[in-house]
Design brief:
Layout (H helix, E strand, L loop, with lengths): L2 H22 L1 H7 L9 H18 L4 H23 L8 H25 L7 H4 L1
Helix pairs in contact: 1-2, 1-3, 1-5, 4-5
C-alpha cells in the first residue's frame, strides 16, 4: 500500500468515527464544540453524507486523481471553518475540525510526492511542487 493510500484510509477511519457520532449522538459532538444542541434531522443527514465521504475515501484511496482532489478539498474545509468562525457563524472551536482536515491533506500531499519519487514519476497537478 502506498503512503498516500494509507493516509486516505486513515482519513476514512476518522470520517467514519465522526460521522457515526453525528448520526447516533450528534448533540454530544455539538456540545464539545460549543454549538447549541439540536433535535432537527439536518445534523444526522450531515453525518450520513460524511459517512459516504468516508466510503469514497476508503474505496478510492488508490486513485491518484482522488488523492489529489482530497488534498484540495481538505484544505477548503479548513479555510471554510476559519471563515465561518471569523464571521461568527460557529464557535472558534470548529476550526479544530478544519485543522485536522488540513493536516490530513498535507500528509496526503507529502505522501503523493514521496510515492512519486519512489517510482520516478510526478502525479498530475503536482508538477510545480514535486522537485
Amino acid at each position: 500500500m502506498s503512503k498516500a493510500t494509507f493516509s486516505a484510509r486513515v482519513f476514512a477511519i476518522y470520517v467514519f468515527a465522526v460521522s457515526t457520532v453525528l448520526v447516533v449522538a450528534p448533540n454530544v459532538l455539538l456540545s464539545v464544540f460549543g454549538i447549541a444542541p439540536t433535535h432537527e434531522v439536518w445534523i444526522r443527514l450531515v453525518g450520513v453524507l460524511a459517512f459516504n465521504i468516508g466510503i469514497y475515501a476508503w474505496v478510492c484511496a488508490g486513485s491518484p486523481a482522488f488523492l489529489e482532489a482530497s488534498v484540495y478539498t481538505r484544505a477548503l474545509v479548513c479555510a471554510a471553518s476559519v471563515a465561518f468562525a471569523l464571521l461568527g457563524f460557529v464557535s472558534p472551536l470548529i476550526v479544530l475540525f478544519g485543522l485536522v482536515d488540513l493536516a490530513g491533506g498535507i500528509w496526503t500531499w507529502l505522501a503523493l510526492k514521496a510515492d512519486a519519487r519512489a517510482v520516478g514519476s510526478v502525479p498530475a497537478g503536482l508538477h510545480a511542487n514535486a522537485q
